[in-house]
Amino acid sequence: MLLLLRRWLRFDTQTYNSLITLFLNKGLPYKAFEIYEAMEEAGCSLDFSTFGLMIPSLAKSGCLDAAFKLFQEMKDMGLRPSFSVFASLVDSMGKAGRLDASMKVYTEMQASGLRPPATMYVSLIESFV
After folding, report:
1. Is 84 helix (H, G, I), strand (E, B) or coil?
2. How does residue 119 score in pLDDT terms, banded at 50, 70 and 90?
3. In the prediction, which pLDDT does 125 show?
4. Please, are residues 89 and 67 in contact by the beta-carbon 8 Å criterion?
5. How far apart are CA 7 and CA 113, in angstroms?
């Protein structure tokens, strides 16, 4: 499908992000990840939106190692994670029993100046119960 679309569309970061959004909205995170991989292979630059789409999606679908890898990649590129990126990692890692990783991300979020809402405290407490 991607090859067919490339005949008519100029693929840039925005085009790839639009396709990722399309597949995520259709409930197809594995297809969104395929688009992400194609984006990387094409040498297209990843941006704040790319990470903001992929990290929560991977975390929610249980691909925590992949989500955390992208989180590290995002920071290595000098991009500041959004609240939704931090929240999805804290919640998903806590639910998966990875309490140390969840607390590490939470602490990092606080250090970045983002204030957690009450719902995040509930998520953290549920992780320990």
Report:
1. helix
2. confident
3. 84
4. yes
5. 44
Please give the distance of CA 25 from its chain centroid, rounded to a whole number.
14
| pTM for the full predicted model | 0.85
Residues 6+ apart with CB under 8 A from 84: 52, 56
Q: Is 112 helix (H, G, I), strand (E, B) or coil?
A: coil
How far apart CA 114 and CA 14 sit, in angstroms, is: 27
Could you count the other beta carbons within 10 Å of the beta carbon of residue 116? Answer: 16
User: 6: which 2 tokens?
Assistant: 């490339």
Side chain identity, residue 79 = L
Task: State which amino acid sits at residue 47.
Answer: D
pLDDT at 8: 65
Token pair 């549920």: residue: 126
Q: Which amino acid is at 5?
A: L
Contact 35, 11 (CB under 8 A): no
